[in-house]
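thought: fold this chain, then report.
action: predict
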Amino acid sequence: MYSIENCAVSRDLMEYERRDSIAEDACDLIGHNMLMVGPPGTGKTLLANAMPGLLPSLSESDALTVASVRSVAGVRFEPADWACPPFRAPHHGASAVAIVGGGRHITPGEVTLAHAGILFLDELTEFKRHVLESLREPLEAGMITISRAEYRVSYPARFQLIAAMNPCPCGYAGDERGFCRCTPDRIARYLEKISGPLLDRIDVHVQIGRLSSEELRKPPKTPEPDSAQLREQVTQCRQTQFVRQGCLNRELDAERLDEFCPMQPAAESLIQQSMEKLHLSARACHRMIKLSRTLADLDGEQIISASHVAQAAAFRHFAVRSLTA
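observation:
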């Protein structure tokens, strides 16, 4: 179903200066919505731009859908782009119509142009709040319905959201080597644009800190995996999911979780504890189970263990929530 031919991408993971456990974990979990938080210059944007190179080629059905969407949107389609997962990175000044679609002459938005690929929102908190809130429906349903007086249209919008942001307006809150100039009230106002319901739909929260000059110059102790190795690992993990259930783990509905996400008793207990301690909603709990399923697949395990649930719970911890405490 999947091929690992290398489609043309903007950057390669080998260009990422800190191919450490953080980068590897983020790449392994490609497919789940992800938020990266960290000071300026830590490589968040570069890592996101390398993600498309880790995705396998699209299936025939998805490739046809992507080509059709581009045709409807009036976006030029090159033959070399056939079966390449789309990567869209709109500017933070984009309007809600530009993101979800619509307008006087109905056109698909960025969420549809990113179908079967990645939608990257850099400087997340610089987007207007109502624009970010418009992402809630497509993130949950995998499609977007636009209703106006003249028309009612539904477009596909099944994409992976990757977002990046600084922890505060100056960018250095929580940074041991930086000097944050922001007051708690200013940080709280800065973070208000990211609502709880939107965070609920983001499975992986990654905090990326700055590296020292010594760490940047120091060669890795062990050879780090390159893009081709990680791409093959991602492809094998996805193939496992399609053979087992016919879709990716992130696309499982609540009715099928019990069938395809069996857990050890200790894992079930940890899920209950996580719901209580992290105050998780039912949606967040289901998403954590799906993330645990992916972690188990990466380990080649049929049954979800407590360690997989613990990893998933750690990934769901919002890296900047403590800044407002």
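thought: worth noting. The first strand starts at residue 34 and ends at 37.
final: tokens above.
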